[in-house]
Design goal:
This protein is α+β, with helices and mostly antiparallel strands and about 180 residues long. It has one domain (about 5-180): Glutaredoxin (3-Layer(aba) Sandwich). It contains five helices and ten strands, in the order E-E-E-H-E-H-E-H-E-H-E-E-E-H-E. The strands form three sheets. The chain has a five-stranded mixed sheet with strand order 6-5-4-8-9. Strands 1-10-7 form a three-stranded antiparallel sheet, with helices on one face. A two-stranded antiparallel sheet has the order 2-3. Strand 4, helix 2 (about 50-65) and strand 5 (about 70-75) form a beta-alpha-beta unit. Helix 2 runs parallel beside helix 5 (about 155-165). The longest helix is centred in the first third of the chain and has 18 residues, at about 50-65. The chain is globular. It starts with a strand and ends with a strand.
Length: about 180
């Protein structure tokens, strides 16, 4: 699998609106997902080794961010014809197995991933309370293997967003597997 680096983008852009089905059997929309201090939108998938490397730490980070008023949502947009383990049924089992405390949504049409400009898994978009983009960076220095003891870049950035309303000026792009487009 070739890795892809997410582009750095202009901060301050509004979050694209969406409604998608979740593995919990409900549809979830942008307005209901936001936390008091912001929202972390994560494009992930089940099979990606970059996601697997941070999976447990990501679940814990999202739990911690809730105490700062930041809610999180994960979206999978991969074409399951190319990677069957990324289909909706497997997403349900994956979320249960790893204790996702956030909605895990399926972007079957891939329109939401395109609207956000997502390119890889994982790809992170951190928004403030007004749903303006403040972070488009990586989780930490992990690649295909967890970087134990690495600076918690995503957590620190979103904590700053919660406390100050804006993210850090210096951001390092996420790297991961390319989204599997139809």
């Amino acid at each position: 699998m070739a890795s892809v680096t997410a582009p750095l983008v202009q901060l301050g852009l509004p979050a694209p609106d969406f409604t998608l089905p979740g593995v919990d059997g409900r549809n979830h929309g942008l307005s209901e997902l936001r936390g008091h201090n912001g929202l972390l939108v994560m494009f992930i998938c089940n099979h990606c080794p970059y996601v697997k490397a941070i999976r447990e730490a990501l679940v814990e980070t999202c739990r911690e961010l809730e105490s700062y008023g930041i809610k999180s949502v994960a979206i999978s947009a991969n074409d399951p014809a190319q990677y069957p383990e990324d289909d909706f049924e497997h997403m349900k089992a994956y979320a249960r197995a790893y204790g996702f405390g956030f909605p895990y949504l399926y972007d079957e049409s891939q329109a939401v991933a395109r609207a956000f400009g997502a390119v890889c898994t994982p790809d992170f978009f951190g928004y403030n309370s007004e749903l303006l983009l403040q972070y488009r960076g990586r989780f930490d220095a992990s690649g295909r293997h967890a970087a134990h003891g690495a600076q918690r870049e995503l957590f620190e950035a979103m904590k700053q967003v919660a406390m100050m309303g804006d993210g850090p000026l210096e951001q390092k792009p996420s790297i991961g597997c390319a989204i599997k487009w139809r």
